[in-house]
């Protein structure tokens, strides 16, 4: 857990397991197949997608911590990119809004998720929805390409938050925007949690401080940053007991630590003076 590559391998392994099991199995674990968390955590983090147009049950693996597509102000004909697209849930909802004139690109670095999403897209006959295998820290997309970027509970899994936010800036068209749901912190997690691999893949210990998260977005050059939703995540005692003693649980609950699911919106300025380059060039 001390290197970026080790973290990525962990996440890839866990989310490959998620792709290869049923939604019912995923619902018995925290933010997917983490192997340690119970249904209560899943229910707290997840949102109900079933009422959104474009929802497809085969693409819903019971993951996520928000509804970014609901807040993303997607328009007909837009090009939309979904980061960490999984089995295609958010991508298919975005496609319902963009229509036949639009384009939706899902990016995921787990081969099993890409395969599952492509099968789902084929079943639905959605030929303007594309799924690309790739690392969102180095997106396989040209600069100034997307009108809108969405992501659901994925950036907290990425070791280098600065790099992925910079990539979002590069890939958005001038005047484009994003709406991202993610897990953030206020206060400090118990030290022993930081080395628990399951909690990283379960969207907890990979999260950073809320203000740091928003500062990275500001520093990258985004404007009109808005918190569209801010929902507290309360971990129940039976989950805490997997990692903490009764005394430690009491200390944690009386402390200043707050875990939240936020949905944040921001815009790339219509005039971009940064002259961003293609992936791998080393700039932006």
Look at the helices and sheets and give the structural class. Answer: alpha/beta
Cα Rg:
18 Å
CATH topology: Rossmann fold
For the record, give the distance between the C-alpha atoms at the N and C termini, rounded to a whole number.
Answer: 27 Å
As for the number of domains, it is 1
Count of runs of 4 or more consecutive helical residues? 11
Q: In the CATH classification, which architecture applies?
A: 3-Layer(aba) Sandwich
Which key terms come to mind for this protein?
284 residues; disordered C terminus; alpha/beta; globular; seven-stranded mixed sheet
Description:
The protein is α/β, with parallel strands linked by helices. The chain has one domain (4-267): Rossmann fold (3-Layer(aba) Sandwich), CATH 3.40.50.150. Helix content is 33%, strand content 21%. The protein contains eleven helices and seven strands. α1 (4-19) runs parallel beside α6 (111-124) and α7 (161-171) runs parallel beside α9 (210-220). It starts with a helix and ends in a 17-residue tail after the last strand.
């Amino acid at each position: 857990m001390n290197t970026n590559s080790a973290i990525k391998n962990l996440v890839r392994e866990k989310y490959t397991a998620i792709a290869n099991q049923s939604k019912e199995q995923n619902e018995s674990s925290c933010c997917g197949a983490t192997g340690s968390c119970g249904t209560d955590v899943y229910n707290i983090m997840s949102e109900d997608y079933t009422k959104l147009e474009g929802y497809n049950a085969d693409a819903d693996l019971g993951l996520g911590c928000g509804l970014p597509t609901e807040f993303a102000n997607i328009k007909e004909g837009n090009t939309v990119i979904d980061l960490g697209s999984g089995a295609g849930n958010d991508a298919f909802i975005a496609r319902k809004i963009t229509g036949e004139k639009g384009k939706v690109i899902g990016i995921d670095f787990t081969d099993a998720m890409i395969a599952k999403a492509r099968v789902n897209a084929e079943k639905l006959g959605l030929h303007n929805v594309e799924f690309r295998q790739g690392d969102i820290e180095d997106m396989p997309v040209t600069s100034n390409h997307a009108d809108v970027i969405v992501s659901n509970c994925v950036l907290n899994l990425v070791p280098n938050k600065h790099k992925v936010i910079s990539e979002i800036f590069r890939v958005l068209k001038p005047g484009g925007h994003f709406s991202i749901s993610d897990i953030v912190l206020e206060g400090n997690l118990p030290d022993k949690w930081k080395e628990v691999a399951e909690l990283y893949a379960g969207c907890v210990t990979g999260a950073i401080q809320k203000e740091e998260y928003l500062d990275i977005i500001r520093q990258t050059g985004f404007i009109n940053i808005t918190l569209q939703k801010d929902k507290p995540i309360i971990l129940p005692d039976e989950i805490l007991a997997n990692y903490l003693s009764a005394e430690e649980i009491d200390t944690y609950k009386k402390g200043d630590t707050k875990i939240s699911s936020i949905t944040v919106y921001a815009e790339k300025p219509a005039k971009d003076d940064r002259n961003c380059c293609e992936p791998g060039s080393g700039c932006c």
